[in-house]
Design goal:
This protein is mainly alpha-helical. It is built from 5 helices and 2 strands. A two-stranded antiparallel sheet has the order 1-2. Helix 2 crosses helix 5.
Length: 110
């Protein structure tokens, strides 16, 4: 059976912001530690991110470009600028996508 796609509800993603009023990311689902491992294997091929020591050249530079938790999840699920990481949806579970989003918003250079 096809896997259903999650909705970006405000309850799950807290209004689409990367940080809460107290500056934390802890209320978003996911594990940054697991997300780093997944990011290095699957995302670093396309994205630059100093914390992951990745130097991809196809996707946005995640150290430089503004991102938040919801943007990361949506970029994987829906794509950005006509580019979709659709192959990841065949490999990763939604909890793993949340892990990656948690990692990106907590570890990227500011």
């Amino acid at each position: 059976a096809p896997r259903s796609r999650p909705t970006t509800s405000s309850a799950l993603f807290s209004g689409g912001v990367g940080r809460f009023a107290d500056g934390s990311h802890h209320r978003h689902p996911g594990s940054a530690a697991n997300g780093k491992k997944i990011f290095v294997v699957f995302c670093g091929k396309c994205h630059v991110m100093k914390a992951a020591n990745t130097t991809g050249t196809i996707g946005p530079n995640l150290d430089r470009d503004p991102v938040n938790y919801t943007n990361v999840v949506n970029a994987v699920i829906q794509g950005v600028g006509g580019v979709q990481a659709e192959y990841l949806l065949r490999i990763l579970t939604f909890p793993q996508i949340y892990d990656v989003a948690k990692y990106v918003v907590t570890a990227r250079s500011n």
